[in-house]
Design goal:
Blueprint: E1 5-10, H1 13-23, E2 27-34, E3 37-43, E4 52-57, H2 61-72, E5 76-81, H3 85-94, E6 99-106, E7 109-115, E8 121-126
Parallel strand pairs: 1-4, 5-8
Antiparallel strand pairs: 2-3, 3-4, 6-7, 7-8
InterPro entries: Glyas_Bleomycin-R_OHBP_Dase, Glyas_Fos-R_dOase_dom, VOC_core
Pfam family, one: Glyoxalase
Organism: Fictibacillus enclensis
Length: 127
């Protein structure tokens, strides 16, 4: 068994698609209309056959409440790995990304947390 898709709730699929592709650098793999929403799946540019990140609309009341509560508590919705966290931090700062936690060493990893502008905090980690 392996993970093939992981979802993240977003407030606006178009805004999320723009942020996750243009700012973070993910590649759009699927964009399929499904009713009033879309199946938008992204992949890492260096692993285009790898795990997909689904930009899931938060229209269901439980999804919206979950997203709002973890955001209010400052809990990251997901985590992405990076090779050089300081370089990625600087690159994202230049693109206007707002960080809530600057690169910080925590045991064996260094992490940072930013606001994805779509209702989530995202953690990046260098192992």
């Amino acid at each position: 068994m392996k993970i093939i898709v992981n979802s993240i709730f977003v407030q606006d699929q178009d805004k999320a698609l723009e942020f996750y592709t243009e700012t973070l650098g993910f590649v759009k793999k699927h964009d399929i209309p499904i009713g009033e929403f879309r199946w938008i799946a992204l992949v890492s540019s260096d692993e285009q056959d790898g795990t997909e990140l689904l930009l899931e609309p938060n229209e269901h009341p439980a999804a919206k409440e979950y997203q709002q509560k973890i955001f209010a508590e400052g809990i990251p919705a997901t985590m992405f790995g990076v090779a050089d966290i300081n370089k990625e931090y600087e690159r994202l700062l230049e693109k206007g990304v707002k960080f809530t936690i600057e690169p910080t060493k925590m045991g064996e990893v260094t992490l940072a947390v930013f606001d994805d502008t779509c209702g989530n905090y995202i953690q990046i980690v260098q192992q």
